[in-house]
Amino acid sequence: MRIVGNLRNVVGRRRRRWFSTELLQETPMARALRNDLGLPSRDLHEHPESKKRFPDGAQYRIEIPSTENVAALKAVVEESKKYDVRVHRVSQGTGIYLMPEPELKDMMRISRDNQMELCLFVTPRNAWDVSATARTDAGRNSTGGHRGMDQLLFALEDVYRACDLGLRSILVNDIGLQSCILELKRAEKLPVDLQCKVSVQMGPPNPATARLLERLGASTLNPPTDLTIPQLSSIRAAVDVPLDVYVEAPDNFGGYVRHLEVPSMVRALAPMYVKLGLRNSPDIYPSGTHIEGTCVALSRERVRRARIALDVLGRYYPEAEMSEVGPSDLGIPVLE
Prior knowledge:
There is one protein chain. The chain is an alpha/beta fold. It folds into 2 domains: 1-42, no CATH class; 43-316, Copper homeostasis (CutC) domain (TIM Barrel, Alpha-Beta Barrel), CATH 3.20.20. Helices cover 41% and strands 10% of the residues. The chain has 10 helices and 8 strands. It has helices at residues 2-22, 28-35, 70-83, 101-113, 148-165, 175-186, 207-215, 229-238, 262-269, 292-316, and strands at 60-64, 89-91, 117-121, 169-172, 195-198, 220-221, 243-248, 272-276. The chain has an 8-stranded parallel beta sheet.
């Protein structure tokens, strides 16, 4: 009886919240959001089915994050064959400039040969700079981005060098850097086919922020890990670019395990990347040979977790369409 009572209380609170927002839908600001700004004026609790798709017509793709080095990438390829997981994108958090050029080229070559997008983080970033503020309790909120104009130049040089070597996908967590990249692509100073993935570290928490980032040239958006499907659905209504959704989040981003929500996510949020972080795992950024074994083990498990998510999809939403290997809009490295 206590459990039933608790459930009733939870349901009651949710209904009250929804009802309270419904009461605001005819206010001047709610109407302005819908009619003048073209934004939803509430979270979409009904989870409307998204009719938006990737260019190939698919609803979802698979992303394996924290693929930090050559050995980890090889492990992802091996495990994807073992578990029959079609991996479309691998991403990395250590950063471009913290990789020796031969290893960078090896990762690009492996990704190209397996028709996967390789997305590497732009560095340096505040968290690893000399900022004392970034190491305080309150200052940790400002660890994203690039501190000062020198660091912004370092970041742009990092992007330019990587593109010159053949990289075509980068991970960005500074709105100013993203705006510069947009202008440089327009001026053809950077490849026009360069994919810019917005990091969860500056993930859009609402539709207005998501649309702003889309207008600044973001290719895909990684929302905060704790958004509900209604909140994510309101973002989907406002933008067309794919959403990169952690269905399992690392511990330092909440540690959420949401595999059973994947069918509803794919239906409501398409086009989306089903992104497999890993709970109960150490923070490995920045990575290197000193923890290579750990990186490889975590990469293997992320692919295994992807298999679990695909099994859930197959059970509850078997008609969902996944991209084939190597669709043309992926940021696959371009090598001679």
